[in-house]
């Protein structure tokens, strides 16, 4: 079932944000505006939703999904960032860039093995944190 929300870009309506959170928590995939276009996103811990996202994008399970983070401190929870990388990330984020970093801290069924590369993105226009505290603020794209 497809639902369409028209959310105000500067003052998102709380009711619509709650509905988007409910869709993500229920295993849904949503499209959100980003710096360059739209991104399909799902909840970080939902393997079935990640499979749906991959099917919609036409990629297989070998394709690495990107973590869309609210800020650099949140990014450091999921990826190893040394001082040199942090300085580069600080200059370039938020923005329309995806950085390939070494994954850490995620060991659920969706993210085995724990190590390995992952894309990480701190978007300017899109803020997963706007979806509220009802979900993890990091989503997969």
Describe the structure.
The chain is α+β, with helices and mostly antiparallel strands and 141 residues long. The chain has one domain: DHBP synthase (Alpha-Beta Complex). The chain is built from four helices and seven strands; from the N terminus they run αββαβαβαβββ. Strands 1-2-7-3-6-5-4 form a seven-stranded mixed beta sheet. It is globular and about 45 Å long. Residues 132-136 have low confidence and may be disordered.
- Largest sheet, strands/sense/barrel: 7 strands, mixed
**Spans of at least 5 consecutive residues with low confidence:** 132-136
Q: Helical element count?
A: 4
Net shape: globular
**Rg over C-alpha atoms, rounded to the nearest angstrom:** 15 Å
Q: Which CATH top level class fits?
A: Alpha Beta
CATH superfamily grouping: DHBP synthase
CATH architecture: Alpha-Beta Complex
**Span from first to last CA?**
20 Å
**Strand order of the main beta sheet, please?**
1-2-7-3-6-5-4
**What is the β-strand count?**
7
In short:
This protein is of the alpha+beta class. It has one domain (14-140): DHBP synthase.
Which terms summarize this structure?
141 residues, alpha+beta, DHBP synthase, seven-stranded mixed beta sheet, 7 strands, 28% helix
């Amino acid at each position: 079932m497809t639902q369409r929300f028209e959310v105000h870009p500067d003052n998102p309506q709380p009711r619509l944000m709650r509905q988007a959170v409910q869709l993500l928590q229920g295993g849904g995939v949503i499209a959100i505006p980003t710096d360059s276009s739209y991104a399909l996103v799902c909840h970080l811990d939902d393997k079935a939703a990640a499979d749906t996202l991959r099917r919609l994008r036409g990629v297989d399970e070998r394709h690495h999904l990107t973590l869309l983070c609210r800020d650099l401190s949140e990014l450091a929870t999921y990826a190893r960032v040394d001082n040199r990388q942090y300085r580069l990330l600080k200059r370039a984020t938020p923005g329309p860039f995806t950085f390939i970093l070494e994954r850490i801290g995620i060991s659920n069924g969706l993210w085995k093995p724990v190590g390995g590369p992952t894309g990480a993105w701190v978007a300017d226009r899109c803020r997963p944190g706007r979806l509220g505290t009802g979900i993890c603020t990091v989503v997969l794209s």
